[in-house]
């Protein structure tokens, strides 16, 4: 019998540079050496995922300062996506435009998609992802109920495509590794999968408004968080629910009925991690059994931890798997296996 996975619980880094709630956390591509965080303070900060030798400590807890700060948003930053070559990243929020940044430059954006056209989003943008060959497309989802595709290489400000099947706001989206599919989640309680090449859309009906999506590496399963207080692992081929978290008999303490909580796969997809609206804790569940593997007090003040992100480890690169969590108290904490 194999042992159930453990929730990595050793605090290795703390990021305290933001002055508002954390809404977005994204690790850099190609190893995840860096972490990008987006906040209601309208800024994006670039920091080291693991503390450097010069990191200060308070009561033996490492505190890392931001390496770079990006300030062009006029509204809260709600999502960030990093290109595969780590040269650029995209961010979205209340501005109704998709911001494209050069990682090396903090003094301004490369492009702002949707800002100079009447074909842009008409409400806040909740999610963004790179897609297509060589990350030449950006995909954004908005409260205006649309998903829009933008050509990174073209100087045309109009979207390549507008997907308007949703009946309510788009809360999250993700792009499988093939680059030509888009999976979107909506407050209308639907998960829609678009095959852009074939012009086809398939739809799965969920029991509540969808607030969070995370894809497995092979793209065959999707983790769906809903406002009915459960997270479900769904088979994308036939739409069956493979597992629900927390288990029906373990619901006590976990709450998600009003806020967007971004959950994720972790530990080589053996775990599911999520914050909770009720108590400032992050909980972990075993993917195979659905059972709880523990919880951590990430917000000592008990405020909501709204986003968690996982970075896979690599023996070849000598790095450990770790996860970051942040939320209403404006602090991001990074944990690894003890």
Automatic annotation (TrEMBL):
<feature type="repeat" description="WD">
    <location>
        <begin position="70"/>
        <end position="111"/>
    </location>
</feature>
<dbReference type="InterPro" id="IPR001680">
    <property type="entry name" value="WD40_rpt"/>
</dbReference>
<keyword id="KW-0853">WD repeat</keyword>
<dbReference type="GO" id="GO:0000398">
    <property type="term" value="P:mRNA splicing, via spliceosome"/>
</dbReference>
<dbReference type="InterPro" id="IPR019775">
    <property type="entry name" value="WD40_repeat_CS"/>
</dbReference>
<dbReference type="Pfam" id="PF00400">
    <property type="entry name" value="WD40"/>
</dbReference>
<dbReference type="InterPro" id="IPR036322">
    <property type="entry name" value="WD40_repeat_dom_sf"/>
</dbReference>
<feature type="repeat" description="WD">
    <location>
        <begin position="15"/>
        <end position="46"/>
    </location>
</feature>
<keyword id="KW-0677">Repeat</keyword>
<feature type="repeat" description="WD">
    <location>
        <begin position="118"/>
        <end position="154"/>
    </location>
</feature>
<dbReference type="GO" id="GO:0005737">
    <property type="term" value="C:cytoplasm"/>
</dbReference>
<comment type="similarity">
    <text>Belongs to the WD repeat MORG1 family.</text>
</comment>
<keyword id="KW-0963">Cytoplasm</keyword>
<dbReference type="InterPro" id="IPR020472">
    <property type="entry name" value="WD40_PAC1"/>
</dbReference>
<dbReference type="InterPro" id="IPR015943">
    <property type="entry name" value="WD40/YVTN_repeat-like_dom_sf"/>
</dbReference>
<dbReference type="InterPro" id="IPR051980">
    <property type="entry name" value="WD_repeat_MORG1"/>
</dbReference>
<protein>
    <submittedName>
        <fullName>Transcription initiation factor TFIID subunit D4</fullName>
    </submittedName>
</protein>
<dbReference type="GO" id="GO:0071013">
    <property type="term" value="C:catalytic step 2 spliceosome"/>
</dbReference>
């Amino acid at each position: 019998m194999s042992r159930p996975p453990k929730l990595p619980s050793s605090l290795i880094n703390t990021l305290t540079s933001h002055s508002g709630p954390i809404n977005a956390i994204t690790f850099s591509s190609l190893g995840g050496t860096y972490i990008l965080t987006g906040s209601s303070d309208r800024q994006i900060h670039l920091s080291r995922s693991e503390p450097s030798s010069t990191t200060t400590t308070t009561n033996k807890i490492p505190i890392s300062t931001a390496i770079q700060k990006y300030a062009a948003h006029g509204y809260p930053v709600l999502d960030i996506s990093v290109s595969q070559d780590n040269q650029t990243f995209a961010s979205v929020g209340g501005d109704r435009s998709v911001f494209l940044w050069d990682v090396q430059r903090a003094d301004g954006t490369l492009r702002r998609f949707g800002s100079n056209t009447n074909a842009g989003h008409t409400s806040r943008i909740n999610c963004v992802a790179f897609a297509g060959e060589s990350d030449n497309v950006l995909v954004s989802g908005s409260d205006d109920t649309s998903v829009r595709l933008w050509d990174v290489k073209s100087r045309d400000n109009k979207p390549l495509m507008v997907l308007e099947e949703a009946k309510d706001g788009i809360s999250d989206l993700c792009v499988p590794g093939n680059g030509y599919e888009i999976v979107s989640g909506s407050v209308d309680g639907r998960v829609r999968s678009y095959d852009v090449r074939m012009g086809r859309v398939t739809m799965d009906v969920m029991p509540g408004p969808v607030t969070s999506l995370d894809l497995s590496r092979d793209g065959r399963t999707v983790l769906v968080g809903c406002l009915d207080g459960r997270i479900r692992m769904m088979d994308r081929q036939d739409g069956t629910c493979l597992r629900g978290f927390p288990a029906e008999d373990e619901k006590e303490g976990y709450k998600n009925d009003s806020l967007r909580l971004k959950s994720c796969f972790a530990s080589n997809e053996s775990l599911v991690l999520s914050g909770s609206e009720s108590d400032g804790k992050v909980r972990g569940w075993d993917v195979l059994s659905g059972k709880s593997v523990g919880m951590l007090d990430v917000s000592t003040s008990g405020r909501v931890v709204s986003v968690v992100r996982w970075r896979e480890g690599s023996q070849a690169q000598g790095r450990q798997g770790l996860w970051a969590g942040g939320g209403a108290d404006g602090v991001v904490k990074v944990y690894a296996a003890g």
